[in-house]
Write a structure and sequence with these properties.
binds ligand F7E; 10 helices; binds NADP nicotinamide-adenine-dinucleotide phosphate
Length: about 350
């Protein structure tokens, strides 16, 4: 039986990856950081099947201990301060976790388990002010947030440990992926949760920032499968994982509200733009500039051609299906609460 260590196991991707690897017969270890109240987040339902190890990406000694306990054949480094907007208010912590945390775990492996295979959760945010459309593995980076700048260090140090020490280290440059387990501050879940709450009369309207930002959105279940495939290769390499389609935040809203039973019409421009329910004339979506970012990533569109060719990876869940699943899940959660 192979052992795997997953950092970030309580998050969206970590929990889906743990399910995938448990199904494949791996012994799964997950790094969790201490909270005032014990909780395993999205991995709560796996607590009898996963061995949790206390630790923090900013604490090298805890990572050495985690490697010692888990004796991993594969390590997936998914832990991060992953909310881009928060990286302006907590830039130093973001760098400690998302940049130095990566070299911490690489050092822990180099010193005691150098033959373990390593996956680094890199991000399309590194393309930032995009230098070409679509973005591929060869596209130059231009980070636009403290989060993206920290992740860029994590990306390059992973490559550097591969080239310096011959470690089997891969970087997945993943474009946005969402799910029913997405944190509620990210725009997709904020919208799906709001559409459900408005349907139940629990909320009047949702306030959003830049409605014209474009993202390449897929489902997390498809994307964790790509992580696993990367670590099964003969030689380590880096891959873009994306759907190859881009939509605006406005598009996501229209579709989410449609699945919740509303038909939105868009009126006005800029700060005055509104999403109005065609049936009742009520304003369901407004713009609030407090959600604008100091520097925005206007458009992301990835080219997954290398991953499709080399990994045999294919996205199975379409954009429409992603939105439908998220809205259905939030409606179900609320209907359970309101009975
Ligand atoms: P997520 O839901 O925010 O999960 C982040 C995980 O990291 C959580 O388990 C969190 O633990 C843990 N964590 C945060 N700070 C930590 C620290 N200092 N020490 C130990 N653990 C810590 O993120 P996700 O969407 O699953 O993303 C997984 C990874 O992929 C992240 O590295 C993210 O930056 C990257 N990524 C995500 C996307 C995307 O669209 N989802 C795209 C590209 C790359 P708590 O539960 O204790 O908070
Ligand atoms: O924003 C715009 C916002 O916070 C998406 C992380 O997983 O993917 C994620 O980062 C877009 C941005 O995700 C609101 O300005 C408008 O243009 O959902 P988000 P993100 O910043 O793309 C990448 C690939 C990662 O690596 C990250 O870890 O939506 N937007 N109005 C809004 N965003 C939020 N959060 N809230 C709004 O009200």
């Amino acid at each position: 039986m192979k052992n795997v260590l997953i950092t970030g196991i309580t998050g969206q991707d970590g929990s889906y990856l743990a399910e995938l690897l448990l199904d494949k017969g791996y012994g799964v270890y997950g790094l969790v950081r201490r909270k005032s109240e014990l909780s395993y987040g999205n991995a709560e339902h796996l607590k009898d099947r996963v061995a949790f190890i206390d630790g923090d990406m900013a604490d090298l000694s805890s990572l050495i201990r985690a490697v010692h306990i888990s004796n991993p054949d594969e390590v997936y480094n998914l832990a991060a301060q992953s909310f881009v907007a928060a990286s302006w208010s907590q830039p130093v912590y973001t760098a400690q976790c998302d940049a130095l945390g990566v070299v911490n775990i690489l050092e822990a492996l180099r010193l005691s388990k150098p033959d373990a295979r390593f996956y680094q959760a890199s991000t399309s945010e590194m393309f930032g002010l995009v230098q070409e459309i679509p973005q591929r593995e060869t596209t130059p980076f231009y980070p636009r947030s403290p989060y993206a700048a920290a992740k860029l260090y994590g990306h390059w140090i992973t490559k550097n440990y591969r080239e310096s020490f011959g470690m089997f280290a891969c970087s997945g440059i993943l474009f946005n992926h969402e799910s029913e387990r997405r944190g509620k501050e990210f725009v997709t879940r904020k919208i799906s949760a709001a559409a459900a709450a408005i349907k139940f009369g629990l909320q009047d309207c949702v306030e959003l920032g830049n409605l014209s930002a474009k993202r390449d959105w897929g489902h997390s279940v498809d994307y964790v499968r790509a992580m696993y495939l990367m670590l099964q290769l003969e030689k380590p390499d880096d891959f873009v994982i994306a759907s190859g389609e881009t939509r605006t935040v406005r598009d996501f809203c229209s579709m989410a509200f449609k699945y919740a039973g509303f038909d939105l019409a868009w009126e006005g421009e800029g700060l005055n733009e509104k999403g109005i329910d065609k049936l009742t004339g009520k304003v369901l979506v407004r713009v609030n500039p407090s959600f604008f970012r100091p520097a925005e990533v206007d458009i992301l569109l990835g080219c997954p051609e290398k991953a499709e060719r080399t990994l045999g990876w294919r996205r199975e869940i379409s954009f429409e299906e992603l939105v439908r699943r998220m809205v259905d899940n939030d409606i179900k959660e609320l209907s359970l609460k309101t009975v």
